Amino acid sequence: MSGEQPSGAQIEARKAQSNADRTGSGKDAASRLQSESDHSAMRKHGK
Fold first, then answer.
1. 3-class DSSP state for residue 5?
2. How confident is the model at residue 33, as a pLDDT?
3. Do 43 and 10 meet the contact criterion of CB atoms below 8 Å apart?
4. What pLDDT does 23 receive?
5. What does each C-alpha distance from 30 to 6, 39, 40, 45 come to in angstroms?
6. Residue 40 pLDDT > 60, yes or no?
7. According to the model, what pLDDT value does residue 7 have?
8. SS (H, E, C) 22-47
9. How far is CA 47 from CA 2, 16, 25, 33, in A?
């Protein structure tokens, strides 16, 4: 990242991914959420 603050969706996705990594459940959903939030951030910041 080049100094942009993470969006609320990215923060939530990171929390979900962290929880999935710890518990071993919900990995597919967390991965999908992470991907979607990252894609949205790229559109938002024009990258």
1. coil
2. 92
3. no
4. 95
5. 16, 14, 15, 22
6. yes
7. 86
8. HHCCCHHHHHHHHHHHHHHHHHHHCC
9. 11, 24, 32, 19
